[in-house]
Amino acid sequence: MNGRPLTAIACGWMAGSGLAAGYPGWRFWLFALGLSLICAAIALIGRHFWRSLVLIWLAFSLAGGYWLYNETGNKTRIGLPVDGQAVRLEGTIVSAVEIDGDRADFTLKASRLSLLSAGSSPQVSQDIPGGEKVAVQLRLAAQKELPTAASWRRGLQVTLDGTLEAPQSARNFGAFDYRRYLHLQRIHWLVKAPGASSIKVVQSTRGVAAVMGYIDALRDRLGERIERLFPEWQAGYMKGLLIGLQNDLDPDKYAEFTQLGLTHILAISGSHVAINVALLFGLLRLCRVTRETAITAALAFVPAYMLITGFSPSVIRSGLMTMLGLYLLRRGLLKDSLNVLAAAAMLMLVWDPYFLLNVSFQLSFAVTAGLILFVPLLSPYFRWLPRKMGSAVAITLAAQLVSFPLTILYFNQFSLLSVLANLLLVPVIGTLALPLGTGALLLSFLSTRLGLWAAFPVRWLNTVTFEATSWLSARSGFMTYWQSPSLLWVAAFYVGYYLVLYWGKRRERLAAEALTPQWQDDDTVPLRPVAEPTSFPLRERVWARRGDFLRLTIATGLVLLLISGYTPAYNKGSGYIEFIDVGQGDCALITTPSGKHLLVDGGGTVSFRKAKDAWRERREPFEVGAKTVVPLLKKRGVHRLDAVILTHGDQDHIGGAQAVLDSFPVEALLINGSLAESKTMTTLMETALTRRIPVYSASRGMNLQPDKGTRVEVLYPLTETEGTSRIPFVKEQNHQSIVFRLDLNGASFLFTGDMDEAAEREMLEIEKVSASAPTTPADSIDVMKVAHHGSKTSTSEAWLAYWQPETALISVGAANTYGHPHPTVVDRLNGQNIRIYRTDKQGEVQMRVRRGRIEVRSKLQQTP
């Protein structure tokens, strides 16, 4: 760091900003005081480090203060009580308008707000000095409104009538926090508006927003031209590759790229900028333009390219680095790319400190720094390969190893085929598809036919690419799921990774130095001589042995670190029940003391959309299994499910199970002995057959014992259908719901699905208990999952009297239209002094069982 002061400053700045983000207020300054004392002690011990330490300490303190200053100002300026109120906003559209199905989303910078009465007339108004950004979600009323929405662009001054709401925070532990996401964009309110008639365009404005609006229109025109050159299934991919538009890429293809760690190809980054700058520079030099003029032209080209490709953090980073590099190259001052990277980071973080928490920013800078630092250390290990191939392997491996901790931190998955996929496909895409596609796009401006001819080889390359990604992603057993590691784990991985390679490089250098004196200048020196430690001088021998020992120790530590990171986020010896908030539906994850996982239902998104409203369908509709359940299971390090229990066939219980079966190995699938007449159920059964998942019909008397501390006893349905010639189709599934008792680590739970009161009476009769004769205390349970989301059709007085639960859990959607839970059921529970937890009020509810004692925590609040 002594030779790289700018790098030291950037590291200190990022550390200070990160600590202030994680520990705001007085806690940051307490940490800063402790760090100051540590820095002072290090400076006294190693005096030659003091300059770097002072720079790092100053950068750290200034960055923390700068972050806290920005946080202090990042508050709403709206002083009126507006949450849930009808309002009229006057302001300017400051983001691109994204239309997906029947919804248009954009950001409005509001300069004036008025509360609306029932007659839509303004009552109280407030001017907002400097304006405030709000996120707008507008639901189009009819298909004919699509052209109107498409005409909206940045820079338009509009008035908007809608309902102002506070953004929703995460409702499950570790889930995506939409409120935090908007906060980092300095947005504190969400406006929901019905129909295009809610917006009235006043006039076009001038300024940055208007300029960006014209650039958006240019990008759209470029996208339309790309659609003419490439077939529909390739057009979305080429839009992402050439101009950074990713919205039109087929969701299934994007998922394949994600699984193989190839999404960086679609994010405009350093390689895209470098290739296009090299093409421009080479073309100018071919036209005999001087080197200085060519550099100047390339320098002017980069900002335009950044704007056209979307101005994302990765684009800004690569663009800034390229411009700084070209400027320094022209001045003859380009010496250290790491300092150039640090300068780009500092410029971005001073402009907006919230860039630090952007995933694209982190991955872009981490991978770039990793290539600068680690490729020289890795290259010697691949000398046995041809030079270009060895260099490509070193670059790919360095990029994958550097991105690995951040990938599992944010996405919780890593494919073992990722290195192979990147090694095979990235060179083809980067050196062939990207430049040829760019050339075809440019030629199309001269002649569409000429552009189509030029695009033909790119189409063939794209076909090969997609076939390869489909084949690789279909290979089962190579996808690994990781719990989200701590930042300390991430830092330990990077430090250990660097030290192992550093000591290996040092040993090789010592070996080379030990052999050098044995040869005269005019002698022939053997190619890549290998020296044994015994031939080193004494001091070098000591260093070599220390290095070997340190490498072995650190490598062992890295292995242990990976093992700990791959282990699920559950303490062995404890049992867990996690009632995941899936809205209006049921989903619970049971984890036994030995680490077995059982999933009860998977939630499901219910749609009542008619065929004539197909235009409302989004490119990737929200599906609770894919968007909520699967990501949470991955985040908690679940690798496989020992059983999936589908209590019955209603959509809000089985809809999300399809994504679960597609993502995880499942050992067994339990159903209630009947099938629902739905496409979802048919697809589930077909998936089970294809994946050879055993399907069992649950009925009274069936017992499962995953480990010695866990027992599942099925209490209902009463009759079994397994072994019959056909499984019957039953329309009314609630009555057939699987009901089971779970004894876990000394505590008891009752899962009831959507059973109705008739099923309750049947069970009570089988138990030979009348409705008026309560059970003995020996039959009571600790926790009951209330049936059918608290509907009045179940949870009768006799049922509660028999089981005598201490705690009740109601899985129900917030603000659902069914009126769940019914007040009568809530009154019954309160009348028996049963403690109630509700997912609509408290989000996810987690219960940890240790030696019969249940510890409860909820996401939104600790007590009901």
From TrEMBL:
<keyword id="KW-1133">Transmembrane helix</keyword>
<keyword id="KW-0812">Transmembrane</keyword>
<dbReference type="InterPro" id="IPR001279">
    <property type="entry name" value="Metallo-B-lactamas"/>
</dbReference>
<dbReference type="InterPro" id="IPR035681">
    <property type="entry name" value="ComA-like_MBL"/>
</dbReference>
<feature type="transmembrane region" description="Helical">
    <location>
        <begin position="549"/>
        <end position="567"/>
    </location>
</feature>
<dbReference type="Pfam" id="PF13567">
    <property type="entry name" value="DUF4131"/>
</dbReference>
<keyword id="KW-0472">Membrane</keyword>
<feature type="transmembrane region" description="Helical">
    <location>
        <begin position="486"/>
        <end position="504"/>
    </location>
</feature>
<feature type="transmembrane region" description="Helical">
    <location>
        <begin position="423"/>
        <end position="443"/>
    </location>
</feature>
<dbReference type="InterPro" id="IPR036866">
    <property type="entry name" value="RibonucZ/Hydroxyglut_hydro"/>
</dbReference>
<feature type="transmembrane region" description="Helical">
    <location>
        <begin position="337"/>
        <end position="357"/>
    </location>
</feature>
<feature type="domain" description="Metallo-beta-lactamase">
    <location>
        <begin position="584"/>
        <end position="788"/>
    </location>
</feature>
<protein>
    <submittedName>
        <fullName>DNA internalization-related competence protein ComEC/Rec2</fullName>
    </submittedName>
</protein>
<feature type="transmembrane region" description="Helical">
    <location>
        <begin position="363"/>
        <end position="382"/>
    </location>
</feature>
<dbReference type="Pfam" id="PF00753">
    <property type="entry name" value="Lactamase_B"/>
</dbReference>
<feature type="transmembrane region" description="Helical">
    <location>
        <begin position="53"/>
        <end position="69"/>
    </location>
</feature>
<feature type="transmembrane region" description="Helical">
    <location>
        <begin position="450"/>
        <end position="474"/>
    </location>
</feature>
<dbReference type="InterPro" id="IPR025405">
    <property type="entry name" value="DUF4131"/>
</dbReference>
<dbReference type="InterPro" id="IPR004797">
    <property type="entry name" value="Competence_ComEC/Rec2"/>
</dbReference>
<feature type="transmembrane region" description="Helical">
    <location>
        <begin position="294"/>
        <end position="316"/>
    </location>
</feature>
<feature type="transmembrane region" description="Helical">
    <location>
        <begin position="389"/>
        <end position="411"/>
    </location>
</feature>
<comment type="function">
    <text>Counteracts the endogenous Pycsar antiviral defense system. Phosphodiesterase that enables metal-dependent hydrolysis of host cyclic nucleotide Pycsar defense signals such as cCMP and cUMP.</text>
</comment>
<dbReference type="InterPro" id="IPR052159">
    <property type="entry name" value="Competence_DNA_uptake"/>
</dbReference>
<dbReference type="InterPro" id="IPR004477">
    <property type="entry name" value="ComEC_N"/>
</dbReference>
<feature type="transmembrane region" description="Helical">
    <location>
        <begin position="30"/>
        <end position="46"/>
    </location>
</feature>
<keyword id="KW-1003">Cell membrane</keyword>
<dbReference type="Pfam" id="PF03772">
    <property type="entry name" value="Competence"/>
</dbReference>
